Amino acid sequence: MTKGYLILETGEEFIGDWIGSEIEMEGEVVFNTSMTGYQEMMTDPSYKGQILTFCYPIIGSYGVNDVDDESKGIAVSAVVISDVCDEPSHYQSTTSLTDKLKSENIPGLANIDTRSLVATIRKHGNVSGKILKVKDARKTKQWKEKNSLELVQSVSVNEQESYGDGHHHVVLVDFGYKKSILKALLNQDCKVTIVPYNTEFETIASLHPDGVLISNGPGDPLALTAVLPTIKALTKNFPTLGICLGHQLIVLAYGGKTEKMPFGHRGGNHPVKDLATGKVYITAQNHGYVVIADSVDKENFQISFQNVNDKTVEGIKHVHLPVQSVQFHPEAHSGPSDTEYIFKDFIQQVVTLGGRRYVKA
Ligand SMILES: NC(=O)CC[C@H](N)C(=O)O
Hints:
Blueprint: E1 3-8, E2 13-20, E3 25-32, H1 38-42, E4 50-54, E5 58-59, E6 78-80, E7 83-84, H2 97-103, E8 107-110, H3 114-124, E9 128-132, H4 148-155, E10 161-163, E11 168-174, H5 179-187, E12 190-196, H6 201-206, E13 211-214, H7 228-237, E14 240-243, H8 245-253, E15 258-274, E16 280-291, E17 301-307, E18 313-318, E19 323-326, H9 341-353
Parallel strand pairs: 3-4, 4-6, 5-7, 6-8, 11-12, 11-13, 13-14, 14-19
Antiparallel strand pairs: 1-2, 1-9, 2-8, 3-9, 10-12, 15-16, 15-17, 17-18, 18-19
Helix pairs in contact: 7-8
The structure holds glutamine (GLN).
């Protein structure tokens, strides 16, 4: 196997064995603590531009299948693995993880001491890294600035797409949506029209949606200030659900603020409390930015969910409009269907209030 190096901008080096495509790569190095779901993680567009480290030590054992990709292909820039399994066993598996990486031109490193790497990322908070074939000091002198708008542009659809023929028409504004969100809507008897992230309010309104879903997506929400007036107008006119980036954008649209977290929430076991009922749910998460609690427009919104570990904002609900958003992923099943009821709630609002404008834009 070819040796490869992961060099962090903070100077630390990790040596491993090259897997996947033999191209050098740069990106923010993040980690996910889930024990399973590597295929879903790699193909989640919210990871665009990032080098994803798997905390779980054995990755690839159940292979890769034809049904679980969250988007058109691998979204991460590269993967970092401790022990990669190249002889998968699962009835649905159609290829191995390393062959999938190769076929989609994505590099990775295996046999990396991921525990030490994660401890290093946690120590620094945020850190970029480069995967290199040879240690070349010249290559680690300069670091690219991340352009979040370009990340969203690269994953959003360019033209409208339509799925299903259910009773409720939901427009999904695509900042890099996960297919599980589309599936969850189709399961709720929806017809879904997916529109590019920068579609204007009037175009969306002319589709006569019963409800609107603002999707997840990569990068810093502050790069998307141009779409905030549209998002605000949508929330004032249609039942709206925001997920992850969509949640952050709704908060920003009402004058709230977001900030970068030290090393994000990425995993399948983040406990989240519903502040109305006191009930705690185990959620799947993937975000590096978070809403600043004090900045939320309290005249219009109440905080609906809170992270049990660090008390960060996990959701908001409008005080009188059918608008809510969550920082976690209700479409991702940390258990059988834990928070999927959020889609049911949304559709309930669509049924009672959809198809009508109830406030002037
Ligand atoms: N999954 C997402 O939508 C992530 C939102 C945003 N890019 C963040 O990292 O916080």
